[in-house]
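Sequence in, structure out.
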Amino acid sequence: MDLISTQALLFVAAVIVVLALPQPAVSRRALLLLANAAFLYLFDPAAPLLFLGVSLVAFFVARLAARGVKGVTLFFLCVPLLVPLFLPKLPMFTGGGESTAVGNVVGVRLAFFIGASYFTLRALHCVLDARRNGELHLGLFDFLVYNSFFPTMVAGPIERADHFKKTYDKLGRPDAEDIRIGFTRLFIGLLKKVVLGGIALQWAEPITSFVATGTGLSAGAAWVALYAIAFYAWFDFAGYSDMAIGVGRLMGIKLAENFDNPYMRTSIAEFWRGWHLSLSFWIRDYLFVPMSGRSKSVLRPHLAALGSMTLCGLWHAPNLGWGLWGLAHGLGLSVHQAWTTKLRKNFKLKKRLAGSRVVRVVSILLTFHFVALTWTLVSIDATRIGPTLDYLAVLFGLA
């Protein structure tokens, strides 16, 4: 099923209408679970089985975690959950044609694995959250509904169970504000994804086809394509998130926001407080903070930034380009940490910089260009570094 199609629109509309019919709450939840399974099935008949296997394992492990099982035991029990995070994006599973693959800015996956990364990250969140808080937010049935909530399957947000639970009782009973916001977000999402994203992708053609037609490209055209691919990544991904949030609101469910003006941020740390927020917070809470630990080591937070962001890159796709993309963002966060630490020791300088509009504008431009340049690592040829270096040579007038 094409996600931007009449078929998809009819599917969404049918689910919203059926859930809105007068019926007990348990019926609404059962119907939504069936709709979630149907959404997976439309991509591949075996996809619901993958989801069910991951979710049942996660729920079982989460119950043990809530009871205080030892950390080593918990780790080995969670190992099977790591497979769906990376396996669907290996070359052997992404080599199919357009008819078998589903793609967006987070990579291309065989249709069989649609949503595997997202429902696995949600499952791991529930395990780790149960370990920390000693309780589960949802029972098995509601956990299956939450973890398979179809609007979030393709590109998130990676909804947290406790946040999902806040509006879960409103399922199928949206109020006037939900309906207004829902249609507004759907329109904005389609505008970003289809119109603005489509225009940006056309302007980005020199970078997406550089491997095949790189000769004769001018530096000016290369810069235009760089800006275009950066905005395409935003329009495409944020558009999906807006549509997911809009559909959720039309069902009465208020999903977490996933983007907040990421390209208007003054540092790479601020960028990650505006880009793919649900993933950013997942990395912070479940990778960066545990890696940093409670040690007073000056070096450990920097290593944690490098390690967590490299893993983030490899989660998008386990190849050289995405690994380097994650490493680059980790280095950026590490440099930002060092600079922030220095400013804490010089309050006058910090205050003077914070009050300068010029510094703010320069910071935004530097952050945007850093992020834009990292997109070249994955938008030209993510399996090799050579074509990216060739493009950068053209970009900076060295070729």
